[in-house]
Structure formats: structure tokens, C-alpha cells
Design brief:
Layout (H helix, E strand, L loop, with lengths): L1 E6 L2 H15 L3 E6 L6 H11 L6 E2 L7 H18 L4 E5 L3 H12 L4 E4 L11 H12 L2 E4 L2 H9 L5 E4 L3 H9 L13 E3 L4 H4 L2 H11 L6 E4 L2 H9 L10 E4 L4 H10 L2 E4 L2 H10 L3 E3 L7 H5 L3 E3 L5 H18 L12 H13 L1
Parallel strand pairs: 1-2, 1-4, 2-3, 4-5, 5-6, 6-7, 8-9, 8-11, 9-10, 11-12, 12-13
Length: about 350
């Protein structure tokens, strides 16, 4: 009996680092990396830093148009599943890798477990929303990271069994925070990240964010996702980067969590960075009109800001969020206690039984 664990992007490799351990304590696990992220900093470096064993299968789908990428994930995963069907397939998140592997499992009658089930957004044309909703319908077990997401799945009458497991990203953070680089002792700085297609495909929005970052009154570190660097070049915005904004290559996981920990403020469109800031006590501003991680906003740890409003709103929000951090510190227990991977393994065991 074997379990297939499927992943393919930077955040999924991070989460796979703890899921592999929890699942392999009980079963043989076949790991499948689709290769959706293939840059060293976005994939291979994580294997080194987090001690993730090399995958049993690396599908090398790379970059492509969404439908082509999805088709490549599905057909290449299907080849693996037909050659040696696993007893259960486990998928993570809401990417094309998630949906492609989930569809391959469904077409081969393989029971499916969805990690990070029940997240929702209402933004029009959000690619991740299509993926997560379809996977939540296909899944036999839905591992919700919070009570809010579990409750949402029950209201939607999701066909599978809903289990509140907590967030495996917190498991990873607690495991590796002690080996992250120590504080550098520099002057207060902001950490910014921007990678979502909705932002990097819109020149006006990207330019507005850059302008806002230049007005917050402190140095800004901006590690560039490959998609973001390509967008800055395509839109001829590199010359518009403010002097206070330091562009950097993508950072590995350990350096990233250290930067989140040490920053005075985080400005991001990343769901993972939002939660890391929430757990590490760093005030956050999310460059979107909404977030799937609603608990971070409800706690006061996070504030929402559409990118086009950054030139006039970002500096003010930075002041507000930093003040709120000291006047009303938040608790960080909305996404479990750091044992999500163990609970997911228990849910897999129940499904097999």
C-alpha cells in the first residue's frame, strides 16, 4: 500500500517537508513534484534547506499557458497512477499542480485528500479560485486549516469528509525558526513581496505599488519572483523603482522567515507570507481587496489594500498597522498548534480504514 503526495510550487514543497515525515511514519509514500516551479530559489534550494528527500517522480511541466500546464500535469500524473495506483492521493493548495493531480486521481478512481481545503475568494477571474473549488468537490477528505474554512465547507455541503487539521505551514515554521539566520540588527525596514498574476499582469497596479513603497519612510526589501522581474522589464518599470526599494533575487525559506520576523512591516500579496507575519507578530498589509486568510484580518494582524490605492494609502496603513501591533497585540492560534501534518495523517488513516 502506498500514498501519493503531489506538489509542485514553492509553498507546496515547504508544506511537503512536514507531510512527507508524517505520512512516511505509517506508509510507503510516492512523492510527485510536478516542476511547476523550477527555479533554484523557488524549488531546489528548498529541498536543501528543509531536508526534503528528492521526489520519486519529477514531471518537469515548467511554465506554460494555464490550460497547457494543467494538461501536462494531469497526463504525466495519470501515467504514474496507471502504472502503479496509490491507495490515496494527497494534494496541497490551489495551483494547477493541485488540480491536475486531483483530476488524474479522480479519473483513476483513487481516493483524494485535499490539504488547505475550504479557502474562498470572490475576486473575478482568480485562477486559484477555480482550482480550489473543483478540488474541494472531488476530494474524499477535506483538511481545513481553520474552523472558518471547515464551517464554509459544511455550509457548501461538500461531498467529502471535513476535518479541521490546522495549517501545515505553521508546522514548518515552528520546526525551522530556530535555525533561521539571526537578526541583522539593521534599522527598521519593510519586507515586500509581489507575485500574483493579477498584479504582475497589470502595469498600472504594479507601478502604483512601487510608488507606494517609495513613500512609507523606511528602506524596503523587495525580493523578485521571476514573474515580477519579467513584468518590471516588460512594462519598463525598472527605472521607476524608488531609491528606497532594494530589489533582490528570490530568497530561500529560512532567509524569508527571518526577514518576516525582523521586518517592521510586511507588504505582500502572498497568502503564505500573510500567515508567517501573523505567527511571528509582524504587522502586515495585503495588496489585495480581500484575502482567503480572513482570520489574519479579523485579528488585526493584517490589513487589506487594493494595489491602485498604494500611492495614497500605503504610508498611512503602515503607521496604523505598526501602532495596532503595540496597542492591541493579537493571538496567533487561528490555524492550529503546529501539529497539522499529524492530523492529516490521521485523516488519511481513517480514509484507508
Amino acid at each position: 500500500m502506498s500514498i501519493a503526495l503531489c506538489y509542485g510550487t514553492r509553498p507546496q514543497v515547504v508544506k511537503a517537508s512536514v507531510l512527507l515525515d508524517a505520512l512516511r511514519r505509517r506508509w510507503s509514500v510516492v512523492s510527485i513534484d510536478t516542476g511547476q516551479h523550477y527555479d533554484f530559489e523557488l524549488n531546489a534550494l528548498l529541498y536543501q534547506q528543509l531536508g526534503v528527500p528528492q521526489p520519486d517522480h519529477f514531471l518537469e511541466v515548467g511554465s506554460a499557458a494555464p490550460v497547457s500546464q494543467l494538461a501536462a500535469v494531469m497526463t504525466r500524473t495519470d501515467d504514474i497512477f496507471r502504472a502503479r495506483p496509490p491507495a490515496v492521493a494527497v494534494v496541497i493548495g490551489d495551483t494547477n499542480s493541485t488540480l491536475g493531480c486531483a483530476l488524474a486521481a479522480a479519473k483513476n478512481d483513487i481516493p483524494l485528500v485535499h490539504v488547505e481545503a475550504g479557502l474562498r475568494a470572490s475576486e473575478p477571474d482568480l485562477p486559484e479560485e477555480v482550482n480550489r473549488r473543483v478540488v474541494d468537490v472531488l476530494a474524499h477528505v477535506l483538511c481545513a486549516p481553520s474552523e472558518v474554512s471547515a464551517s464554509r465547507l459544511r455550509k457548501e455541503q461538500a461531498p467529502g469528509t471535513v476535518v479541521t487539521t490546522g495549517d501545515v505551514a505553521r508546522d514548518v515554521l515552528l520546526r525551522h525558526l530556530q535555525v533561521a539566520p539571526p537578526p541583522a540588527g539593521r534599522t527598521p525596514f519593510a519586507l515586500a513581496t509581489a507575485h500574483r498574476a493579477a498584479l504582475t499582469a497589470d502595469r498600472e497596479a504594479l507601478a502604483a505599488l512601487l510608488a507606494g513603497l517609495g513613500r512609507i519612510g523606511m528602506p524596503v526589501l523587495l525580493p523578485l519572483h521571476p514573474r515580477t522581474r519579467e513584468a518590471l522589464e516588460r512594462f519598463e518599470l525598472l527605472a521607476a523603482v524608488p531609491a528606497a526599494v532594494e530589489l533582490r533575487p528570490p530568497m530561500g525559506y529560512l532567509v524569508t522567515i527571518a526577514a518576516v520576523r525582523d521586518a517592521a512591516i510586511v507588504v505582500t500579496d502572498s497568502g503564505g507570507v500573510q500567515r508567517e507575519a501573523y505567527w511571528l507578530g509582524t504587522p502586515c498589509i495585503t495588496v489585495r481587496g480581500e484575502t482567503e486568510w480572513v482570520e489574519t484580518v479579523e485579528s488585526g494582524a493584517n490589513a487589506l489594500m487594493p494595489p491602485l490605492s498604494a500611492p495614497r494609502r500605503l504610508a498611512e496603513l503602515v503607521v496604523e498597522q505598526r501602532r495596532r501591533r503595540w496597542e492591541s497585540p493579537w493571538t496567533s492560534d487561528a490555524y492550529g498548534d503546529g501539529h497539522a501534518a499529524e492530523r492529516i495523517a490521521e485523516a488519511v488513516g481513517t480514509l484507508l480504514d
